Amino acid sequence: MYVGAIFFPLLGACLAGFFGRWLGDKASQWVTVAFMALAAACGIGAFVEVALGGAAGVVPIASFLDVGGFEAEWALRYDTLSVVMVMMVTFISTLIHLYSVGYMSHDATIPRFFAYLSLFTFMMLMLVTADNLVQLFFGWEGVGLASYLLIGYWYERESANRAAMKAFIVNRVGDLFFMLGLALTFWTFQSVEFETIFSGVAQAQQRTFLGMPSLEVISVLLFLGACGKSAQLGLHTWLPDAMEGPTPVSALIHAATMVTAGVFMMARMSPVVEYAPTALAIVTIVGASTAIFAATIGCVQNDIKRIIAYSTCSQLGYMFFAIGVGVYQAAIFHLFTHAFFKALLFLGAGSVIHAMSDEQDIRKMGGIWKKIPVTYAVMWIGSLALAGVPFFAGYYSKDALVEVAWAAHSGTGTYAFLIALAAAFLTAFYSWRLIILTFHGTPRADHHTMEHVHESPMVMLVPLLVLATGAVLTGYLFADLFIGEHQEAFWRESIHNAAHNQVLEHAHHAPAWVKLAPTVVGLAGIALAYVMYMLRPELPGMLAARFQGLYRFLLNKWYFDELYDAIFVRPAQFLARAFWKTGDARLIDGVPNGAADLAVQAARGAVRIQTGRVANYAFAMIIGLVLFVTLLLYGAR
């Protein structure tokens, strides 16, 4: 069961990828779906045995590396943190695979798509069940590779190729810091095995690197690595462009796999980062700043998928500031519930795009809710959960993050608390802006498009309904286990438990105004969106004209792309052009090719004496012999 949960997706990927041409489109689809369903069943079984039954353990597979004193085993670590992730990843991925059967039904290379999708899932599962940092890094790089393949899946589009390259390169920046953190961890602990690392933290607190505490440096480096995968401020620029991939890919990246990897890794390393207060303060500030940064941009975007993408970026910021204040289980709880309602929102957006003949601009939609009522209902459910409206999933998990930020009673915690409330207001606002502009008002699409608006097939609607159920119930069902009275018995030793810091306990006894504040600001954001886009639809245009500079600043995503273009891209292009025209064309092509040309001319002269006549060759030999004898006699004198 433990092995099957990880390797069934790989088996499905191999069958669809290597034998898809013989299996055909339908068989490739259902083979991968069937193996994902088996993996999900194994994942749920593992959750019951390990998380609820307390049967944690390690399943050895093989020796991964054994070079000198460096050893790394390939093993599957099954503790509560791992099985929570395995259950979530396999379950969400199964629904996305099933949804893709309908969404990608007219694609030209269906086996390739499903092979990539299953490979992506396998790499994420390898990451979350890693028993050491090397194996975790293998999965870490694997999801990066799979995301490159899936974002650039429609490789005939130049925009998709650019987006795939951008995601790959930006993540390499973060991965460099991850590798440095891995190397420093080995230098500090003489091991990359988690058990050895965690048991040696007490002794490592005295170690320094370049005059700084080693644990602090390790934690900062690992967090910078996490910033790449989880799209935190500064390394976030790849995330909105990743929308170039098919919508199921967007759902998988943003809900269950790649962007959650950084949060998981920080939670896994919580026994180390707990003793790095400076690093935790940095995590808190960056996470909170990312939450408000992405929320402001989401308020003015017009692409339905990009709005939800920036929502993901913002929610990841929430998770990171919860890690920064030391309440790791609250961050994982929000990661867990967020996977359901964010996958629901992305797949719901895909259903809208499917109905609107591939239109993604919400300014060209409107007035379609009666034609696609199921999609409309599930988008409402996903948005209610995202906004933290009682008693949907986000109400339990996101509000808990706001409360722990308040309970931290630190400067960075106060900053995170205030920013979280502001971001909650903006989240509710842009969620209902999306709903109103997409589904309500007078139709803004052309007549031909409106004639063809239709509800999605059942193979797409069933995953939406299952995810909608999760968006309603997961917060209520799992709150007690993840952050309630039974959280210590549930998490055991899989993460650094809140019993050591009491922040979560203080959050449970927060004043009523702290508990009510997220709901109040969320409802206020919904009300503002209703006024601006239903009652006074001319108001957004007036405000955009009145505050044109601010509007353009947000519409252009704080000009991060332009800034990076000026700092990195243009200088790199200038150097490349200089090396090409001067170094390559003038020096390399000029000097060696000039010398080569001389050799060619000399060879052509030598060819002229190759007549093929024996008399000529005999004459040349006699002349040579005469010259040789003459030189020999001259030398003898």
Quaternary structure classification: single chain
Tell me the structural class: mainly alpha
Helical residues, percent: over 70%
**Gap between N and C termini, in Å?**
96 Å
User: What's the number of domains?
Assistant: 2
Q: Helix tally?
A: 29
Instruction: Compute the average pLDDT.
Output: 91
Throw out a few tags for this protein.
single chain, 637 residues, mainly alpha, 2 domains, two-stranded antiparallel ribbon, two-stranded antiparallel sheet, 29 helices, 75% helix, 4% strand, globular
Would you kindly provide a written description of the structure presented here, covering whatever features stand out?
Helix 3 runs antiparallel to helix 4, helix 14 (277-298) runs antiparallel to helix 15 (304-324) and helix 16 runs antiparallel to helix 17 (373-387). The model has no long low-confidence stretch (mean pLDDT 91). This protein has two domains: 2-555, no CATH class; 604-637. The protein has helices spanning 2-23, 25-52, 80-103, 110-128, 133-151, 158-189, 194-199, 201-204, 214-229, 238-241, 247-256, 261-268, 270-273, 277-298, 304-324, 328-355, 373-387, 393-407, 411-439, 447-451, 458-483, 487-491, 503-508, 512-535, 539-546, 548-555, 560-588, 591-607, 614-636, and strands at 57-67, 70-78, 208-209, 212-213. It is mainly alpha-helical and 637 residues long. A hairpin with a 2-residue loop joins strand 3 and strand 4. The chain is built from 29 helices and four strands. It is globular, with a radius of gyration of 30 Å. 75% of the residues lie in helices and 4% in strands. The strands form two sheets. Strands 1-2 form a two-stranded antiparallel sheet.
